[in-house]
Specification:
The chain contains 14 helices and two strands. It has about 350 residues and is an all-alpha fold. It has a two-stranded antiparallel ribbon with strand order 1-2. It is globular, with a radius of gyration of 21 Å. The relative contact order is 0.16.
Length: about 350
């Protein structure tokens, strides 16, 4: 008896995204488990340790205050997950993440420069909606200038663009390190607290700007899933199939820069979150169809973030070190897959 495909019987595998009923059931189970975990952790963050009776006005008032953190986690999860998956598809490389383009180095340089030139009060000077919008605008503008310059020329090359991004990120990091050495201990202590990625860095006034940017760019990438599937085949194959590869890559990188700039300006650097989420999503979805990988990646991102915060806040009372835990786990996952497979 041959294997089944969406209710029809064939011998062998088909070209569908989930070619067998077993694969379809597995995907449905994974999606359901992630939805349950996401709902459980979100409810836990809202209700765990809430001193007021469930359903009372006081309970909902406290839950509403905590709800801001849950919304921030959802925005960061969607931004990091969809940006990393799309960036790895556009660059045809599953090791690098969008942070290689210097988004986080630019964020660190802006924060360090504010404290260096304005003192400890500089931390408050780079907060507020105008500064938040300005940081996103600078990050997107610089990244698009880099993409446009290096990809639109006659000898435009994606690998050269990545190399230039690494050099710019390294240069900004060196300038930031130099300024940090000249700070007083108290100023350095204030700055260090800002340089750890944390949902507590986000202000509720940022959300009316961050949510539309996240939803808009995410929806456009999701609608562009079929083209991403073709881009993943490589430049030559995509061009042979009638796709303007360079134009499509530029479009994807523009949306990626919006998502990464929004996430970084909102909570700070999350170096390994995107890599961890994308790697787990590929393993769990077990398909290369971006229409199916994106939902899994976004849910994995939210489960990882909300689960980490729930455990660190209620078990270890140290929610401020969540980003450190994520980077340690993300780095370990990276080494595990490299050593186990020799590839990603």
């Amino acid at each position: 008896m041959g294997k089944h495909d969406g209710g029809t019987r064939h011998s062998g595998r088909s070209a569908a995204s989930l070619p067998t009923r077993r694969a379809q059931r597995r995907y449905a189970v994974v999606l359901t488990v992630l939805l349950v975990l996401a709902a459980g952790f979100a409810f836990g963050l809202l209700a765990w340790g809430n001193p007021m009776p469930v359903g009372s006005d006081g309970f909902w008032r406290i839950a509403q205050m905590r709800g801001t953190s849950v919304v921030v986690m959802a925005v960061v999860a969607v931004c990091q997950a969809m940006a990393t998956v799309s960036f790895q598809t556009a660059t045809n490389n599953r090791i690098i993440t969008p942070s290689i383009m210097g988004f986080e180095s630019l964020y660190i340089a802006v924060q360090t420069g504010a404290v260096f030139f304005l003192g400890a009060a500089g931390v408050t000077a780079v907060q507020g909606v105008p500064q938040f919008v300005l940081q996103i605008f600078i990050m997107v503008g610089l990244s698009m200038a880099l993409y446009g310059w290096l990809l639109s020329g006659k000898y435009g090359n994606l690998h050269v663009m990545l190399l230039v991004g690494i050099i710019i990120g390294g240069g900004l990091g060196s300038v930031s390190a130099f300024m940090q050495r000249l700070l007083t201990p108290s100023e350095f202590d204030v700055l260090t607290a800002r340089l750890f990625g944390s949902v507590t860095n986000a202000d509720v006034s940022y959300l009316p700007i961050a949510i539309p940017l996240c939803v808009g760019a995410g929806v456009l990438l999701l609608l562009n899933s079929r083209r991403l599937n073709i881009i993943a085949l490589g430049s030559d194959t995509a061009t042979g199939l009638g796709l303007n590869h360079r134009r499509e890559v530029m479009r994807v990188l523009f949306l990626v820069s919006i998502l990464m700039a929004t996430s970084t300006a909102l909570v700070g650097p999350m170096t390994f979150l995107g890599f961890l989420v994308a790697t787990l999503a590929y393993q769990l979805a077990d398909t290369f169809d971006h229409r199916l990988v994106f939902p899994i990646a976004a849910l994995v991102g939210f489960v990882v973030l909300s689960g980490s915060y729930f455990v660190m806040k209620n078990v270890f009372y140290a929610e401020g070190v969540v980003s450190i835990i994520i980077e340690v786990v993300g780095g370990s996952v990276f080494l595990f897959f490299i050593l186990r497979k020799g590839r990603l």
